[in-house]
Amino acid sequence: MARGKKMQFYLSDQEYILLQEYAEDRQISMAEVLRDYIKTLPQIKKKTSR
Fold it and tell me: What is this structure's pTM?
């Protein structure tokens, strides 16, 4: 899958360490942890206009 969007945001030191340790434990990148989490989000039904 081609990735064409970029996100940038700030984390607290505690959030960063948690993400880093989680990724290292699973031997994947921190970005991949976030991508995998996004895939678990529920689909939002779009409202139809009349």
Answer: 0.80
- The structure tokens listed for 4 are 């064409």
* d(C-alpha 20, C-alpha 30), whole Å: 6
- Which residues does 22 contact at the CB level (< 8 Å), separation at least 6? 33
Between the CA of residue 10 and those of 7, 16, 32, what are the distances in Å? Answer: 10, 9, 17
For residue 14, the Cα-to-chain-centroid distance in whole angstroms is 17
Amino acid sitting at position 45: K
pLDDT tens digits, one per residue of 35-49: 999 999 999 988 877
